[in-house]
Amino acid sequence: MPSFDPHSENAEYVEALYQEYLRDPDSLAEEWRYFFKGFEFGFLRTEDEDAFERVVEEKEVGEDESVALGGERRHRQRTDRGVYALVQAYRQLGHFIAKLDPLGHDRENLPLLELAEFGLSEDDLEKGVGSGGFLGETDGSLQGLLSQLRLTYCQSLGVEYMDIPDREQRTWLQEQIEPCPNYSNLENEESRRVLTRLVAAAEFEQFLHTRYVGQKRFSLEGGESLVPLLDELVRVGSEVGVEEVVIGMSHRGRLNVLAHLLHKPYENILAEFEGADQSDRADNEGDVKYHKGYSYDHVTDKGRKVHLSLSFNPSHLELVDPIIEGIVFAKQSYLHDEEGVRVVPVLVHGEAAFTGQGIVAETLNLSEMEGYRTGGTIHVIINNQLGYTATPSETRFTPYPSDVAKQIQAPVFHVNADDPEAVVHAARVAMEFRNRFKVDVIIDLWCYRRYGHNEADDPTLTQPLMYKEIAQHPTVLERYSSKLIAENKITQDDVDEIRSRVRSRLDEAQEIARRLQVQPHTSSFGGVWQGLTWATEDWSGYTAVDASILQQVVKRATEVPEGFALHRTLKRILAS
Prior knowledge:
- With 576 residues, the protein is of the alpha/beta class.
- The protein contains 20 helices and eight strands.
- The protein has an eight-stranded mixed sheet with strand order 1-7-8-6-5-2-4-3.
- α7 (188-211) packs antiparallel against α17 and α7 (188-211) crosses α18 (492-515).
């Protein structure tokens, strides 16, 4: 039982105690009960209480009637407190019962969200209770409020943000997600854009699966919504001033991202599958195709230019994380982007690696340190619910892979990849949040892996039940196209036409790739490196720095600024 500390300045601690007081006053120390009772008397005096006193004064009711009115007032007070506590509980815990798993293994209920926890019951469902501080529209009844809370916090997108100690950030998030409620109703053109991205992602994977049987590609199938997610981050970023997005990711889905976000030509990618030689190229990276990088000058549908770069990545999955932060830091310094508006880092993680590799925690820990800040990173976790062959319960004891990031108190958007419109909404809010507050934000993309860890593995050996479900589960493209057809936003002919166009483009690219003996050259030098070339075997260039310049650098580095009080030991060192 917490003791009373009248001098405590921890507002979040006091607020947590007040929520506990609303649920069960007897659980707190006597001093805290008196404190909150006085607080309510002074600040939570309701109109009903004022009305009660007027009735007593004006009608001079008898003692029995006064007692009855007093009892009714106390019941209303308890109900009001319970309703406010209910809203806060859904904000804090609603994500635990959200519909996040595409395979349907979601938690059905949570005891801490039962009405009895707040002094309420089903008898109160039809009663008028107001909004309880909820920012969305309701019909005023408890039933209506509950419906809106569940719609906002317990559908395809669950938001974890009540651990954030910054009240402005919390309030901003509530203002973005509660009035919607936590969903973007896409216009027809926006829905078609999402569908087109999904068709391209799905057809590309199927093309590789059938034309290059057994070759490793680390398929994105089951998580195709990653493509519209990244596309939306770039689109929204361009509208808030982002000029460059630097991406780091491991192998899962990398080829798809190269093809459909960075627009690496199909011919280049397929030439690698066809075995085209690259040994005589000056920029030969000597790396496998699902580790390579690329850059691209993307132009949005509104004509805004955003430079995209995907860095090369080694097999040590998360090693690229601090490298990306360093690249972004350097770019921001070069561009005098002190606020971190123009250049944004995006890191795409696997769920097991995010939890299991210490370099992730180290990178997160540095993200808010002076001298390391890059204005906030957008982390996307491809949560296919398997780490190679191990289930989440075999690799961590926490509910989410993102829990390791609690040290930086970032908001987490847990979203079902089978609902691409919810994914797009999460991307929008995430980019806008990062732009406003310049801190990290996490998107936990719940999906599944249709094939093994790579295409040479048979996952039915280690996860037979899961893969029986996956085999029978419709793809996100099938689900989304059916939804749009049912809503009369598109027709089946539209879907078939988009598919046919993508397949024709892939067939054409394969024909070209098969004729190539050497992989097409793609310059690694762009942006500030434009115009540079590889040295090859010619190392005759003069790269020395004039001695006078070095002397000037040393002189400036050892000069003491005027008015600066130097430590006496340093004075002796400089004087020697």
